[in-house]
Amino acid sequence: MVKVLRLHSLTIKQRKNFKKMAESKGKQQNKSKDTISPGIKTDIQELIDKEEHALRKRLPVKLPKRKNDIYVHRKTDFKAQMLRCQKLLDTGYNMIFIHGIGMAVNRAINLAMQLNELEHGTLEMEVNTSTVELSSDLEANVDDLDPDSRGGINSAVHIRLFRLKKTESSQKQATQ
Hints:
Its main location: cytoplasm. The protein is an alpha+beta fold. It has helices at 12-29, 78-90, 105-118, 168-175, and strands at 35-37, 40-41, 53-58, 69-72, 95-101, 123-140, 148-163. Helix 2 (78-90) packs across helix 3 (105-118).
């Protein structure tokens, strides 16, 4: 049975020794930084002592910042996101972009589907997926510790919603 050590219960000196030992094992076995024991992957927040470090997750570097870009988060209320999208569509924007990263991918897809349903199928969707590089900073709250940073990758979805332009022939067919 393999035991997982929790770093928040260790002293600063023990943590430094543990970090050196983990780095030397990591070089030998070429494991990721978040692996403590072989085969057991841990969440980085379980390893952080909240009194000594603060975890700051940074956004990806290359995010577009237009008024019609909607970034979906898990913490934002779904109805508020829906109202914001509807408001953009009602105020003259014929196209909006919905972005979701990681756990928010499902919510972004759901938002796009709900908007299309509310608009009675008059919206067209283009969906692109990608992988984005993320980084997190460990800011030291104690003077003895150095700041650290961690990187990783995560899945992302980018949905372009746009109104279908009705031509005169399609309008005539709809009225007949």
